[in-house]
What we know:
Elements: H1 3-21, H2 25-32, H3 37-44, H4 46-64, H5 68-86, H6 92-123, H7 128-152, H8 160-176, H9 185-190, E1 193-194, E2 203-204, E3 208-210, E4 217-219, H10 232-235, H11 239-242, H12 247-263, H13 265-278, H14 287-290, H15 292-307, H16 310-317, H17 319-339, H18 344-355, H19 357-375, H20 381-410, E5 412-413, E6 416-417, H21 419-440, H22 447-450
Antiparallel strand pairs: 1-2, 3-4, 5-6
Helix pairs in contact: 1-6, 1-7, 1-8, 3-6, 4-6, 4-20, 5-6, 5-8, 6-7, 6-20, 7-15, 7-16, 7-19, 12-20, 12-21, 15-18, 15-19, 16-17, 17-18, 17-19, 17-21, 19-20
Amino acid sequence: MTIQARLKIMSFLQFFIWGSWLITLGSYMIKTLAFSGTQVGNIYSMQGIAACIMPLLLGIIADKYIAANRLYALCHLSGGVILLIMAQITNAETMIWVMLLNLMAYMPSLGLANAIAHFCLKQKQLDTAVHFPSIRVFGTIGFIAAMWIISLSGNELSPVQLYIAAAASFCLALYSLTLPSQPAAAAQVRGGLDRPACGGAPRQRGGLEALTCGGALQQKGDSGRPAATENWAHRLGLEALVLLKQPRLAVFFAFAMLLGVVLHITNTFGNPFLHDLAARPEAAGNVLLRYPDILYSLSQISEIAFILTIPFFLKKFGIKIVMAVSVSAWILRFVFFAFGGASSFGMSLLVLSMLVYGCAFDFFSISGSIFIEKVVDSSMRSGAQGLFMTAVNGFGTFIGMYLGGRIIDYFTDETGRNWQAVWLVFAAYSAVLLVLFLVIFRAKEPAAAATGPHNV
């Protein structure tokens, strides 16, 4: 079996686990366990907290001490056990803490999965910009498959969904141990060699060495490390944070966090919006509004098509244009939501909002991961991927959920929620973010890297 096929299986299982409970667990807690909306919101907000801490921490550990695939296996092994425990819980006070533990195990596995895929592809001298998107698309397929299995088996309101997720988590934990093992930096240091980020021949420590492939040279200390990292940051394994000293990467990570604010807004509040539409008299008999998850599945399906276009757009236009297109797609999604409704024209806009989701989400998350892979040194790659996930799914999600709920409450009165105003606020925010990104972000690569097969 080729390494591409093996990584596709990993990606499928990675997102199958999430798809097994992410969409339907809220319904299970509200309908079956009788949790309040506030309790369910608090439970789901644990994603932001977990993602602020764990991806960066475990990414650094993977870079320095433990092979990424082994740490990845540990995440899913512990995650499977926690999911089994969650299936037994019936009170909100306990569920919130167990959910935090579950997400502390799962969230860092997203960044580790990216790092493993990139390492395996580079080991086989395969172009990550060409092959990674086709691997990631199987994650989307896995997410959709899990949603349909849970729904068709009648387990949307049952704890069985958690058992299914746990079984997939155990399978992935075992499977990941069969993947190539990426040596941690500590093992490379013992060998006295550093390997450049672009996959060239090993380099002897000492003298001058580039921080990133083709980047500016930095003076090395007596120990062979860059002088700037001969401090507590190196001893604690926090080299990934040093990346924030580079203006281009600092702007990129800041932008990732700000775009992360809107990344989960429609996934969190879109379903209540559709239910409000379904309650209107003019929506009677509308099948799509009667089953919002069926309509939402178009968003996941659209991801598949857009993921496959990423290699072309990255090669043709570069990372800056691709990311700008992503923000533009978010603007369109919010505008389509704002003017969507139960009429034929309104339903057309809702369908379009689902279709542009693939572009909005994938052109940001997948292209961003590839961009990091191209510009960050191999010794900090897992940590950088973890930092990216922390900015997006951690700080971004927490801020988005915190502000999103308050914006909705602001536009709520005795007559109901003014969803059009809510979506237009998010559209305006995205438009401002697009302008700032186009003005501030510089995507130009170092001279040596620019001569490679891609221009990101």
